[in-house]
Every structure is written in C-alpha cells, then in structure tokens.
Amino acid sequence: MDQEQILARITTMVDDERRLREALAAGQIDGATEHERLGQLERDLDQCWDLLRQRRAKSEFGENPDDAHVRPSSQVEGYQA
Question: Region annotation Disordered: residue ranges (predicted)?
Fold first, then answer.
C-alpha cells in the first residue's frame, strides 16, 4: 500500500468507528458488539499508522518505502508516542 492508500484506509476506519458509536447510541447494536468491533478497528488503525510511520521514516532516510510491511497487532499495540 502506498501512503495515499493507507490514509484512505485510515479515513474509512475512522468513519466506521463513528458509525459504530452512532449505532450504539441509536440502540441498533449492543455495547458488547460495539466494544468488540471497536477493538478490532483500533488494532487495524494502529497497524495502519505504524505502516505509515515506517514508510515515512524509510523515505526520510533514503530507503525504499515499499520495503515497509504491516507488523502484527501484537507488536504495534502498546507503542507509546
């Protein structure tokens, strides 16, 4: 994925997150469903942000950004900014 594709995916996931919260508020889904889906979205978002940071760092230091890869959520979860 290139930078534009990653950013588009992030935007889509943020929109999905907003829709989930709205669905919960409207009583269309229960809290457990929202929690489960939000958890997966958050993990996916963390992976996308990590991939974007990798690509940007590689570009900054003269490396090929296409060499960046999606890391497992277990690896990117818990990063401190």
Answer: 57-81
